[in-house]
Amino acid sequence: QVQLVESGGGLVQPGGSLRLSCAASRSIFSAYAMGWYRQAPGKQRELVAGITTDSNTNYADSVKGRFTISRDNAKNTVYLQMNSLKPEDTAVYCCVRGIYYNTVRSVGSWGQGTQVTVSS
User: Left, alpha or beta for 42 (phi > 0: left; psi -120 to 50: alpha)?
Assistant: First the structure.
């Protein structure tokens, strides 16, 4: 079982930036797609961004142009750089490992989540 540990959440003002990190426990990290989901209170969980094993990326329309997902296979780590943050980005963000190399819509492992709050 791959364990995922997120870090980097917190409180930020609108327009600010945060970078989330997710460290995986096993070296097979490079064989799977990785991604980030988020869930705000009272809302459905949303797939924010995904990255394939060869670093092709995809994003929710709501974050395109503001968020960037990347991965470092040598460090077993995936990142989510979040810029121009808005109050509606407030949510618990969870790192996921897909069960395939090219999508995270089928999830094999979930992180515990990290809170991101965008507020003045």
Answer: left
Q: In the structure encoding, which two tokens stand for residue 113, read together? A: 């989540």
Q: CA 86, CA 54: separation in Å to the nearest integer?
A: 30
Average pLDDT score, the chain: 95
List, in order, residues 6 or more apart from 70 with CB less than 8 Å away.
51, 55, 78, 79, 81
β-pair type (34-39, 57-59): unpaired
DSSP for the chain, please give it. ---EEEE--EEE-TT--EEEEEEESSGGGGGS-EEEEEE-TTS--EEEEEE-TT--EEE-TTTTTTEEEEEEGGGTEEEEEE-S--GGG-EEEEEEEESSSS-SSSEEEE---EEEEE--
pLDDT at 26 over 90: no
Per-residue pLDDT tens for 59-75? 999 999 999 999 999 99
Q: Which residue has the higher pLDDT, 52 or 1?
A: 52
Over range 95-117, report the average pLDDT.
Answer: 95
